[in-house]
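To whoever is covering the structure queue this week,

Two jobs came back overnight. Logging them here so there's a record in the thread.

Job A:
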Amino acid sequence: MATSRILGFVESRKNITGAACGVAGLALTFAGAAGPYWPAVVAGLYGAGALIAPPERPAPPDFPDPSAQLEEVRGDFGTLRAYLDGIELPPAAAGRLGELTGLLAALLDPGWAAELLARDPESLHVLSRTVRRDLPEAVDTFVRTRWWTRLAPGAQSPERHLERQLELLRKEAERLAAILREAEAGRQESHTRYLEDRGGAGERPGGIGV
Protein backbone atom coordinates (compact mmCIF):
# COMPACT_ATOMS: atom_id res chain seq x y z
CA MET A 1 0.00 0.00 0.00
CA ALA A 2 2.77 2.43 0.98
CA THR A 3 4.73 1.52 -2.16
CA SER A 4 1.75 2.21 -4.38
CA ARG A 5 1.21 5.60 -2.73
CA ILE A 6 4.87 6.48 -3.26
CA LEU A 7 4.71 5.43 -6.90
CA GLY A 8 1.51 7.38 -7.31
CA PHE A 9 3.16 10.54 -5.98
CA VAL A 10 6.24 10.04 -8.16
CA GLU A 11 4.01 9.82 -11.24
CA SER A 12 1.72 12.66 -10.15
CA ARG A 13 1.45 15.95 -11.98
CA LYS A 14 2.54 17.88 -8.88
CA ASN A 15 5.80 15.95 -8.56
CA ILE A 16 6.54 16.12 -12.30
CA THR A 17 5.88 19.87 -12.46
CA GLY A 18 7.83 20.48 -9.25
CA ALA A 19 10.74 18.42 -10.53
CA ALA A 20 10.78 20.41 -13.78
CA CYS A 21 10.93 23.65 -11.83
CA GLY A 22 13.64 22.18 -9.59
CA VAL A 23 15.70 21.34 -12.66
CA ALA A 24 15.31 24.96 -13.73
CA GLY A 25 16.67 25.95 -10.32
CA LEU A 26 19.69 23.72 -10.84
CA ALA A 27 20.25 25.36 -14.19
CA LEU A 28 20.24 28.74 -12.47
CA THR A 29 22.71 27.37 -9.93
CA PHE A 30 25.12 26.18 -12.62
CA ALA A 31 24.75 29.54 -14.32
CA GLY A 32 25.84 31.23 -11.08
CA ALA A 33 22.54 33.05 -10.56
CA ALA A 34 21.49 31.28 -7.37
CA GLY A 35 24.61 31.94 -5.36
CA PRO A 36 25.17 30.18 -2.05
CA TYR A 37 21.45 29.87 -1.47
CA TRP A 38 20.93 27.46 -4.36
CA PRO A 39 19.41 24.67 -2.19
CA ALA A 40 16.66 27.06 -1.07
CA VAL A 41 16.16 28.24 -4.66
CA VAL A 42 15.83 24.70 -5.97
CA ALA A 43 13.49 23.68 -3.12
CA GLY A 44 11.41 26.85 -3.56
CA LEU A 45 11.04 26.31 -7.28
CA TYR A 46 10.08 22.69 -6.71
CA GLY A 47 7.42 23.73 -4.19
CA ALA A 48 6.10 26.46 -6.47
CA GLY A 49 5.84 24.03 -9.35
CA ALA A 50 4.00 21.52 -7.18
CA LEU A 51 1.53 24.22 -6.13
CA ILE A 52 0.74 25.47 -9.62
CA ALA A 53 0.40 21.99 -11.10
CA PRO A 54 -3.20 21.07 -12.05
CA PRO A 55 -4.86 18.63 -9.65
CA GLU A 56 -5.04 14.96 -10.46
CA ARG A 57 -8.23 13.98 -12.29
CA PRO A 58 -9.56 10.58 -11.21
CA ALA A 59 -10.55 8.36 -14.10
CA PRO A 60 -14.35 8.15 -14.51
CA PRO A 61 -15.95 4.76 -13.77
CA ASP A 62 -15.99 2.41 -16.71
CA PHE A 63 -19.69 1.53 -16.98
CA PRO A 64 -20.90 -0.80 -19.74
CA ASP A 65 -22.24 0.96 -22.81
CA PRO A 66 -25.99 0.79 -23.61
CA SER A 67 -25.47 -2.04 -26.12
CA ALA A 68 -23.84 -4.20 -23.46
CA GLN A 69 -26.61 -3.31 -20.98
CA LEU A 70 -29.23 -4.28 -23.53
CA GLU A 71 -27.57 -7.64 -24.05
CA GLU A 72 -27.63 -8.23 -20.28
CA VAL A 73 -31.35 -7.39 -20.10
CA ARG A 74 -31.98 -9.75 -23.02
CA GLY A 75 -30.23 -12.55 -21.13
CA ASP A 76 -32.20 -11.77 -17.96
CA PHE A 77 -35.42 -11.88 -19.98
CA GLY A 78 -34.55 -15.40 -21.10
CA THR A 79 -34.09 -16.38 -17.44
CA LEU A 80 -37.41 -14.73 -16.57
CA ARG A 81 -39.29 -16.62 -19.29
CA ALA A 82 -37.89 -19.92 -18.02
CA TYR A 83 -39.19 -19.00 -14.56
CA LEU A 84 -42.61 -17.99 -15.87
CA ASP A 85 -42.95 -21.23 -17.82
CA GLY A 86 -42.95 -23.08 -14.51
CA ILE A 87 -45.75 -21.00 -12.96
CA GLU A 88 -49.37 -22.06 -13.30
CA LEU A 89 -51.63 -19.03 -13.70
CA PRO A 90 -55.38 -18.63 -14.15
CA PRO A 91 -56.45 -18.39 -17.82
CA ALA A 92 -57.16 -14.64 -17.75
CA ALA A 93 -53.82 -13.81 -16.12
CA ALA A 94 -51.98 -16.24 -18.37
CA GLY A 95 -53.43 -14.50 -21.42
CA ARG A 96 -52.34 -11.08 -20.23
CA LEU A 97 -48.93 -12.41 -19.33
CA GLY A 98 -48.57 -13.83 -22.83
CA GLU A 99 -49.42 -10.43 -24.35
CA LEU A 100 -46.87 -8.70 -22.13
CA THR A 101 -44.03 -11.16 -22.70
CA GLY A 102 -44.70 -11.11 -26.43
CA LEU A 103 -44.34 -7.33 -26.47
CA LEU A 104 -41.20 -7.47 -24.34
CA ALA A 105 -39.72 -10.10 -26.64
CA ALA A 106 -40.37 -7.89 -29.66
CA LEU A 107 -38.68 -4.93 -27.97
CA LEU A 108 -35.66 -7.00 -26.97
CA ASP A 109 -35.33 -8.88 -30.24
CA PRO A 110 -32.12 -7.84 -32.06
CA GLY A 111 -33.10 -5.41 -34.76
CA TRP A 112 -34.48 -1.92 -35.18
CA ALA A 113 -36.11 -1.70 -31.74
CA ALA A 114 -32.90 -2.82 -30.05
CA GLU A 115 -30.92 -0.19 -31.95
CA LEU A 116 -33.28 2.52 -30.72
CA LEU A 117 -33.16 1.22 -27.14
CA ALA A 118 -29.37 1.30 -27.20
CA ARG A 119 -29.58 5.04 -27.95
CA ASP A 120 -32.25 5.75 -25.30
CA PRO A 121 -30.98 5.08 -21.74
CA GLU A 122 -34.30 6.09 -20.14
CA SER A 123 -36.33 3.63 -22.21
CA LEU A 124 -33.74 0.94 -21.57
CA HIS A 125 -34.10 1.61 -17.84
CA VAL A 126 -37.89 1.18 -18.04
CA LEU A 127 -37.53 -2.09 -19.90
CA SER A 128 -34.87 -3.35 -17.51
CA ARG A 129 -37.05 -2.49 -14.51
CA THR A 130 -39.97 -4.44 -15.97
CA VAL A 131 -37.89 -7.53 -16.70
CA ARG A 132 -35.76 -7.57 -13.58
CA ARG A 133 -38.14 -6.34 -10.92
CA ASP A 134 -41.76 -5.51 -11.72
CA LEU A 135 -42.87 -8.61 -13.62
CA PRO A 136 -41.13 -11.27 -11.49
CA GLU A 137 -42.31 -9.53 -8.32
CA ALA A 138 -45.91 -9.43 -9.57
CA VAL A 139 -45.94 -13.15 -10.33
CA ASP A 140 -44.06 -14.16 -7.16
CA THR A 141 -46.36 -12.07 -4.97
CA PHE A 142 -49.39 -13.71 -6.61
CA VAL A 143 -48.03 -17.20 -5.94
CA ARG A 144 -47.38 -16.38 -2.29
CA THR A 145 -50.70 -14.62 -1.73
CA ARG A 146 -52.69 -17.37 -3.46
CA TRP A 147 -51.22 -19.95 -1.07
CA TRP A 148 -52.23 -17.92 1.99
CA THR A 149 -55.66 -17.17 0.51
CA ARG A 150 -56.36 -20.89 0.24
CA LEU A 151 -55.65 -21.21 3.96
CA ALA A 152 -57.58 -18.11 4.96
CA PRO A 153 -59.78 -16.76 2.17
CA GLY A 154 -59.86 -12.99 2.02
CA ALA A 155 -62.08 -10.38 0.41
CA GLN A 156 -59.74 -9.47 -2.44
CA SER A 157 -58.82 -12.01 -5.08
CA PRO A 158 -55.07 -12.30 -5.77
CA GLU A 159 -55.96 -13.18 -9.38
CA ARG A 160 -57.58 -9.77 -9.87
CA HIS A 161 -54.52 -8.00 -8.50
CA LEU A 162 -52.23 -9.96 -10.81
CA GLU A 163 -54.41 -9.25 -13.84
CA ARG A 164 -54.38 -5.54 -13.00
CA GLN A 165 -50.61 -5.50 -12.54
CA LEU A 166 -50.03 -7.30 -15.82
CA GLU A 167 -52.36 -4.87 -17.58
CA LEU A 168 -50.45 -1.89 -16.17
CA LEU A 169 -47.11 -3.37 -17.21
CA ARG A 170 -48.45 -4.07 -20.70
CA LYS A 171 -49.61 -0.46 -21.06
CA GLU A 172 -46.18 0.74 -19.92
CA ALA A 173 -44.51 -1.47 -22.51
CA GLU A 174 -46.90 -0.15 -25.16
CA ARG A 175 -45.99 3.43 -24.20
CA LEU A 176 -42.34 2.48 -24.53
CA ALA A 177 -42.95 1.06 -28.00
CA ALA A 178 -44.82 4.26 -28.93
CA ILE A 179 -41.87 6.38 -27.77
CA LEU A 180 -39.50 4.37 -29.92
CA ARG A 181 -41.88 4.59 -32.88
CA GLU A 182 -42.14 8.36 -32.47
CA ALA A 183 -38.36 8.64 -32.29
CA GLU A 184 -38.03 6.80 -35.57
CA ALA A 185 -40.80 8.92 -37.13
CA GLY A 186 -39.04 12.06 -35.92
CA ARG A 187 -35.85 10.89 -37.52
CA GLN A 188 -37.68 10.37 -40.82
CA GLU A 189 -39.29 13.81 -40.62
CA SER A 190 -35.92 15.42 -39.91
CA HIS A 191 -34.47 13.80 -43.00
CA THR A 192 -37.43 15.05 -45.05
CA ARG A 193 -36.88 18.61 -43.80
CA TYR A 194 -33.17 18.33 -44.55
CA LEU A 195 -33.90 17.30 -48.14
CA GLU A 196 -36.49 20.06 -48.49
CA ASP A 197 -34.08 22.68 -47.14
CA ARG A 198 -31.34 21.43 -49.41
CA GLY A 199 -33.67 21.63 -52.38
CA GLY A 200 -34.75 25.12 -51.39
CA ALA A 201 -31.12 26.26 -51.44
CA GLY A 202 -31.17 25.95 -55.24
CA GLU A 203 -28.95 22.90 -55.53
CA ARG A 204 -28.96 20.90 -58.74
CA PRO A 205 -27.90 17.29 -59.21
CA GLY A 206 -24.13 17.16 -59.20
CA GLY A 207 -23.86 19.92 -56.60
CA ILE A 208 -24.04 22.86 -59.09
CA GLY A 209 -26.10 25.77 -57.78
CA VAL A 210 -28.25 28.07 -59.89
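Job B:
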Amino acid sequence: MSDAIFTENLRKVYAAPSMRRFRGLSSRGSGPPPIVPFAPVRTTDKGVVALDTLDLRVREGEFFGLLGPNGAGKTTTIGILTTRVTPTSGRAMVAGLDVTAAPDRVRQRIGVVPQRPNPDRSLSTLENLVFHAAYFGIPLDRAEQHAVDLLKRLDITDKADARVDALSGGQQQRLMIARALIHEPQVIFLDEPTVGLDPQARHDLWEILRDLHAHGRTIVMTTHYMEEADQLCERIAIVDRGRLLACDTPERLKASAPGGTLVEVTLDGEAEAAVTPALAVAGVTRAEAHGTGLHAYSERGGEAIPALITAAQSVGRVVTNIHLTRPSLESLFISMTGRKLD
Protein backbone atom coordinates (compact mmCIF):
# COMPACT_ATOMS: atom_id res chain seq x y z
CA MET A 1 0.00 0.00 0.00
CA SER A 2 1.45 3.38 -1.03
CA ASP A 3 1.63 6.54 1.06
CA ALA A 4 -1.12 9.13 0.77
CA ILE A 5 1.02 11.55 2.80
CA PHE A 6 4.73 11.65 3.43
CA THR A 7 6.72 14.29 5.31
CA GLU A 8 10.44 14.40 5.99
CA ASN A 9 12.24 16.83 8.31
CA LEU A 10 9.29 19.18 7.99
CA ARG A 11 9.96 22.48 9.74
CA LYS A 12 8.11 25.78 10.03
CA VAL A 13 9.53 28.93 11.61
CA TYR A 14 7.33 32.02 11.81
CA ALA A 15 8.95 35.43 11.90
CA ALA A 16 8.41 36.92 15.35
CA PRO A 17 6.96 40.46 15.20
CA SER A 18 9.09 42.98 17.04
CA MET A 19 7.78 45.03 19.95
CA ARG A 20 8.58 48.14 17.92
CA ARG A 21 6.11 46.93 15.30
CA PHE A 22 3.50 46.35 18.02
CA ARG A 23 4.00 49.84 19.45
CA GLY A 24 3.84 51.42 16.01
CA LEU A 25 0.58 49.67 15.15
CA SER A 26 -0.92 50.60 18.50
CA SER A 27 0.05 54.25 18.31
CA ARG A 28 -1.37 54.62 14.80
CA GLY A 29 -4.57 52.85 15.77
CA SER A 30 -4.32 50.64 12.69
CA GLY A 31 -5.63 47.47 14.31
CA PRO A 32 -4.31 44.62 16.43
CA PRO A 33 -0.79 43.24 16.11
CA PRO A 34 -0.14 40.21 13.91
CA ILE A 35 -1.09 36.81 15.27
CA VAL A 36 1.85 34.65 16.32
CA PRO A 37 1.66 30.89 17.00
CA PHE A 38 0.72 29.83 20.51
CA ALA A 39 3.03 27.75 22.75
CA PRO A 40 6.00 27.40 20.39
CA VAL A 41 8.81 24.89 20.74
CA ARG A 42 11.27 27.71 21.14
CA THR A 43 12.21 31.11 19.78
CA THR A 44 15.42 31.44 17.79
CA ASP A 45 17.13 34.44 16.25
CA LYS A 46 15.13 33.65 13.11
CA GLY A 47 11.72 33.52 14.75
CA VAL A 48 9.20 31.21 16.41
CA VAL A 49 9.59 27.48 15.76
CA ALA A 50 6.08 26.07 15.31
CA LEU A 51 7.04 22.76 13.68
CA ASP A 52 10.33 20.99 14.20
CA THR A 53 11.61 18.19 11.89
CA LEU A 54 8.32 16.31 11.62
CA ASP A 55 8.41 12.92 9.87
CA LEU A 56 5.06 11.29 9.05
CA ARG A 57 3.71 8.56 6.78
CA VAL A 58 -0.02 8.09 6.19
CA ARG A 59 -1.12 5.12 4.10
CA GLU A 60 -3.80 5.28 1.43
CA GLY A 61 -7.22 4.57 2.93
CA GLU A 62 -6.02 5.14 6.49
CA PHE A 63 -7.84 7.10 9.19
CA PHE A 64 -4.96 8.99 10.78
CA GLY A 65 -5.06 11.29 13.79
CA LEU A 66 -2.83 14.13 14.94
CA LEU A 67 -3.36 14.33 18.68
CA GLY A 68 -2.01 17.11 20.85
CA PRO A 69 -2.92 20.19 22.91
CA ASN A 70 -3.55 23.64 21.50
CA GLY A 71 -0.29 25.02 20.13
CA ALA A 72 1.19 21.58 19.45
CA GLY A 73 1.74 22.25 15.73
CA LYS A 74 -1.28 20.31 14.45
CA THR A 75 -2.87 23.19 12.54
CA THR A 76 0.50 24.25 11.10
CA THR A 77 0.99 20.69 9.85
CA ILE A 78 -2.44 20.66 8.22
CA GLY A 79 -1.74 24.12 6.78
CA ILE A 80 1.40 22.84 5.05
CA LEU A 81 -0.25 19.65 3.78
CA THR A 82 -3.16 21.64 2.34
CA THR A 83 -0.80 24.21 0.71
CA ARG A 84 -1.98 27.17 2.85
CA VAL A 85 1.32 27.39 4.75
CA THR A 86 4.76 27.29 3.14
CA PRO A 87 7.26 25.14 5.05
CA THR A 88 10.56 26.69 6.06
CA SER A 89 12.40 23.49 5.19
CA GLY A 90 11.86 19.78 4.69
CA ARG A 91 9.57 17.96 2.29
CA ALA A 92 5.86 17.17 2.22
CA MET A 93 4.11 14.95 -0.32
CA VAL A 94 0.33 14.53 -0.64
CA ALA A 95 -1.24 12.09 -3.12
CA GLY A 96 2.16 11.66 -4.72
CA LEU A 97 2.71 15.39 -5.27
CA ASP A 98 5.07 17.86 -3.60
CA VAL A 99 2.97 20.50 -1.81
CA THR A 100 5.50 23.24 -2.57
CA ALA A 101 6.27 22.35 -6.18
CA ALA A 102 2.71 21.53 -7.27
CA PRO A 103 0.23 23.25 -4.91
CA ASP A 104 -2.52 23.63 -7.54
CA ARG A 105 -2.46 19.93 -8.37
CA VAL A 106 -2.43 19.02 -4.68
CA ARG A 107 -5.54 21.12 -4.06
CA GLN A 108 -7.36 19.18 -6.78
CA ARG A 109 -6.74 15.97 -4.82
CA ILE A 110 -7.67 17.08 -1.30
CA GLY A 111 -10.75 18.15 0.61
CA VAL A 112 -10.48 20.38 3.69
CA VAL A 113 -12.88 20.73 6.61
CA PRO A 114 -11.75 23.78 8.61
CA GLN A 115 -11.77 24.12 12.37
CA ARG A 116 -14.68 26.56 12.16
CA PRO A 117 -17.33 26.38 9.42
CA ASN A 118 -16.76 29.09 6.82
CA PRO A 119 -19.55 28.75 4.23
CA ASP A 120 -20.80 31.62 2.11
CA ARG A 121 -23.65 32.90 4.27
CA SER A 122 -25.31 34.70 1.39
CA LEU A 123 -26.01 31.36 -0.31
CA SER A 124 -28.24 28.42 0.49
CA THR A 125 -26.83 25.07 1.56
CA LEU A 126 -27.17 23.60 -1.93
CA GLU A 127 -25.76 26.72 -3.60
CA ASN A 128 -22.67 26.55 -1.37
CA LEU A 129 -21.89 23.10 -2.76
CA VAL A 130 -22.60 23.94 -6.39
CA PHE A 131 -20.51 27.12 -6.31
CA HIS A 132 -17.63 25.27 -4.65
CA ALA A 133 -17.79 22.59 -7.34
CA ALA A 134 -17.36 25.28 -9.98
CA TYR A 135 -13.90 26.04 -8.58
CA PHE A 136 -12.88 22.56 -9.71
CA GLY A 137 -14.43 22.82 -13.16
CA ILE A 138 -17.33 20.45 -12.44
CA PRO A 139 -20.24 21.02 -14.88
CA LEU A 140 -23.36 22.52 -13.32
CA ASP A 141 -25.69 19.58 -13.92
CA ARG A 142 -23.21 17.09 -12.47
CA ALA A 143 -22.44 19.38 -9.54
CA GLU A 144 -26.12 19.77 -8.66
CA GLN A 145 -26.73 16.03 -8.73
CA HIS A 146 -23.64 15.29 -6.65
CA ALA A 147 -24.59 18.01 -4.17
CA VAL A 148 -28.06 16.52 -3.75
CA ASP A 149 -26.54 13.08 -3.23
CA LEU A 150 -24.13 14.41 -0.59
CA LEU A 151 -26.86 16.25 1.30
CA LYS A 152 -28.87 13.03 1.37
CA ARG A 153 -25.87 11.01 2.51
CA LEU A 154 -25.15 13.49 5.31
CA ASP A 155 -28.83 13.69 6.30
CA ILE A 156 -29.38 17.40 5.67
CA THR A 157 -31.51 17.17 2.51
CA ASP A 158 -34.26 19.12 4.25
CA LYS A 159 -31.83 22.04 4.58
CA ALA A 160 -30.93 22.22 0.89
CA ASP A 161 -32.70 25.56 0.33
CA ALA A 162 -32.03 26.98 3.77
CA ARG A 163 -29.60 29.80 4.43
CA VAL A 164 -26.52 28.78 6.36
CA ASP A 165 -27.53 30.78 9.43
CA ALA A 166 -30.60 28.54 9.77
CA LEU A 167 -28.37 25.49 10.30
CA SER A 168 -27.23 24.23 13.69
CA GLY A 169 -23.51 23.91 14.45
CA GLY A 170 -23.57 20.19 13.68
CA GLN A 171 -25.46 20.76 10.41
CA GLN A 172 -22.97 23.44 9.34
CA GLN A 173 -20.12 21.01 9.98
CA ARG A 174 -21.92 18.42 7.82
CA LEU A 175 -22.13 21.05 5.11
CA MET A 176 -18.37 21.58 5.40
CA ILE A 177 -17.81 17.85 4.94
CA ALA A 178 -20.10 17.82 1.91
CA ARG A 179 -18.20 20.79 0.47
CA ALA A 180 -14.89 18.98 1.03
CA LEU A 181 -16.24 15.94 -0.84
CA ILE A 182 -17.89 17.71 -3.79
CA HIS A 183 -14.92 17.17 -6.13
CA GLU A 184 -14.22 13.57 -5.02
CA PRO A 185 -10.82 14.18 -3.34
CA GLN A 186 -8.35 11.43 -2.55
CA VAL A 187 -7.49 12.77 0.91
CA ILE A 188 -9.73 14.57 3.42
CA PHE A 189 -8.26 16.84 6.10
CA LEU A 190 -10.29 17.79 9.17
CA ASP A 191 -8.91 20.33 11.62
CA GLU A 192 -10.52 19.89 15.08
CA PRO A 193 -13.88 19.09 13.40
CA THR A 194 -15.93 18.61 16.58
CA VAL A 195 -14.82 21.64 18.61
CA GLY A 196 -17.88 23.47 19.89
CA LEU A 197 -20.35 20.69 19.07
CA ASP A 198 -22.65 19.21 21.70
CA PRO A 199 -22.09 15.53 22.59
CA GLN A 200 -24.88 14.24 20.33
CA ALA A 201 -23.70 16.26 17.31
CA ARG A 202 -20.14 15.09 17.99
CA HIS A 203 -21.15 11.41 17.98
CA ASP A 204 -23.28 11.91 14.87
CA LEU A 205 -20.24 13.37 13.13
CA TRP A 206 -18.16 10.39 14.25
CA GLU A 207 -20.59 8.07 12.45
CA ILE A 208 -20.27 10.13 9.27
CA LEU A 209 -16.49 9.95 9.43
CA ARG A 210 -16.58 6.19 10.06
CA ASP A 211 -18.77 5.79 6.98
CA LEU A 212 -16.41 7.86 4.83
CA HIS A 213 -13.49 5.76 5.99
CA ALA A 214 -15.41 2.54 5.34
CA HIS A 215 -15.78 3.69 1.72
CA GLY A 216 -12.00 3.88 1.33
CA ARG A 217 -11.30 7.56 2.02
CA THR A 218 -7.94 8.62 3.43
CA ILE A 219 -8.76 10.82 6.41
CA VAL A 220 -6.36 12.97 8.43
CA MET A 221 -7.88 14.59 11.49
CA THR A 222 -6.42 16.84 14.17
CA THR A 223 -7.92 16.73 17.64
CA HIS A 224 -7.10 17.31 21.28
CA TYR A 225 -9.88 14.97 22.39
CA MET A 226 -8.37 11.65 23.49
CA GLU A 227 -11.61 9.71 23.20
CA GLU A 228 -12.13 10.98 19.66
CA ALA A 229 -8.69 9.86 18.52
CA ASP A 230 -9.04 6.54 20.33
CA GLN A 231 -12.48 5.79 18.87
CA LEU A 232 -11.88 6.83 15.26
CA CYS A 233 -8.24 6.58 14.24
CA GLU A 234 -6.32 3.55 13.03
CA ARG A 235 -3.05 5.24 13.94
CA ILE A 236 -2.31 8.32 16.01
CA ALA A 237 0.64 10.68 15.98
CA ILE A 238 1.05 12.42 19.34
CA VAL A 239 2.61 15.84 18.85
CA ASP A 240 3.59 18.57 21.27
CA ARG A 241 5.41 21.88 20.76
CA GLY A 242 6.06 21.03 17.13
CA ARG A 243 7.65 17.64 17.73
CA LEU A 244 6.46 14.09 17.13
CA LEU A 245 6.45 12.22 20.45
CA ALA A 246 4.97 8.89 19.35
CA CYS A 247 3.09 7.32 16.44
CA ASP A 248 1.25 3.99 16.49
CA THR A 249 -2.17 2.38 16.84
CA PRO A 250 -4.25 3.50 19.83
CA GLU A 251 -3.90 0.05 21.40
CA ARG A 252 -0.11 0.02 21.16
CA LEU A 253 0.18 3.59 22.38
CA LYS A 254 -1.93 2.86 25.45
CA ALA A 255 0.06 -0.32 26.07
CA SER A 256 3.26 1.75 26.06
CA ALA A 257 1.95 4.06 28.80
CA PRO A 258 3.72 3.60 32.16
CA GLY A 259 2.25 0.63 33.98
CA GLY A 260 -0.57 1.00 36.42
CA THR A 261 -2.76 3.91 37.41
CA LEU A 262 -1.27 7.40 37.40
CA VAL A 263 -1.79 9.04 40.79
CA GLU A 264 -1.26 12.79 40.48
CA VAL A 265 -0.65 14.34 43.89
CA THR A 266 -0.56 18.13 44.01
CA LEU A 267 1.53 19.54 46.87
CA ASP A 268 1.87 22.95 48.49
CA GLY A 269 5.46 23.26 47.25
CA GLU A 270 8.06 21.65 45.01
CA ALA A 271 7.56 17.87 44.79
CA GLU A 272 11.16 16.78 44.12
CA ALA A 273 11.86 15.80 47.74
CA ALA A 274 8.78 13.53 47.80
CA VAL A 275 9.96 11.30 44.92
CA THR A 276 12.24 9.06 47.00
CA PRO A 277 9.69 8.22 49.74
CA ALA A 278 7.02 7.76 47.04
CA LEU A 279 9.17 5.13 45.31
CA ALA A 280 9.26 3.20 48.59
CA VAL A 281 5.45 2.87 48.62
CA ALA A 282 4.28 -0.68 47.89
CA GLY A 283 3.01 -1.04 44.32
CA VAL A 284 4.56 2.20 43.04
CA THR A 285 6.67 1.43 39.96
CA ARG A 286 7.65 4.96 39.01
CA ALA A 287 7.54 8.42 40.55
CA GLU A 288 8.42 11.82 39.12
CA ALA A 289 8.26 15.44 40.20
CA HIS A 290 6.71 18.04 37.91
CA GLY A 291 6.86 21.33 39.77
CA THR A 292 4.39 20.98 42.64
CA GLY A 293 2.98 17.77 41.16
CA LEU A 294 4.08 14.30 42.27
CA HIS A 295 3.26 11.73 39.55
CA ALA A 296 3.29 8.16 40.86
CA TYR A 297 2.40 5.08 38.79
CA SER A 298 0.82 2.43 40.98
CA GLU A 299 -0.13 -1.16 40.21
CA ARG A 300 -2.57 -0.94 43.12
CA GLY A 301 -4.41 2.11 41.83
CA GLY A 302 -6.08 4.24 44.49
CA GLU A 303 -4.90 1.94 47.29
CA ALA A 304 -1.57 3.77 47.19
CA ILE A 305 -3.09 7.16 48.02
CA PRO A 306 -2.80 7.05 51.85
CA ALA A 307 0.85 5.95 51.66
CA LEU A 308 1.63 8.66 49.08
CA ILE A 309 0.08 11.29 51.35
CA THR A 310 2.27 10.02 54.16
CA ALA A 311 5.31 10.12 51.85
CA ALA A 312 4.61 13.77 51.04
CA GLN A 313 4.11 14.66 54.70
CA SER A 314 7.41 12.98 55.57
CA VAL A 315 9.25 15.69 53.64
CA GLY A 316 7.15 18.54 55.01
CA ARG A 317 4.65 18.84 52.16
CA VAL A 318 0.86 19.14 52.36
CA VAL A 319 -1.34 17.46 49.75
CA THR A 320 -3.80 19.90 48.16
CA ASN A 321 -5.31 17.71 45.44
CA ILE A 322 -5.31 14.13 44.11
CA HIS A 323 -6.31 12.85 40.67
CA LEU A 324 -6.34 9.28 39.29
CA THR A 325 -5.86 8.39 35.61
CA ARG A 326 -5.97 4.82 34.34
CA PRO A 327 -3.50 3.80 31.57
CA SER A 328 -4.60 5.81 28.55
CA LEU A 329 -3.45 8.18 25.83
CA GLU A 330 -3.61 10.93 28.44
CA SER A 331 -1.37 9.09 30.90
CA LEU A 332 1.07 8.40 28.05
CA PHE A 333 1.10 12.10 27.16
CA ILE A 334 1.58 13.11 30.80
CA SER A 335 4.46 10.65 31.16
CA MET A 336 6.15 12.22 28.11
CA THR A 337 5.56 15.89 28.88
CA GLY A 338 4.50 16.25 32.51
CA ARG A 339 1.35 18.09 31.33
CA LYS A 340 -2.24 17.19 30.63
CA LEU A 341 -3.41 16.88 27.04
CA ASP A 342 -6.36 19.27 27.29
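Note for Job B: The chain has two domains: 3-249, 258-326.

Please reply-all if you pick these up so we don't duplicate work.
Q.
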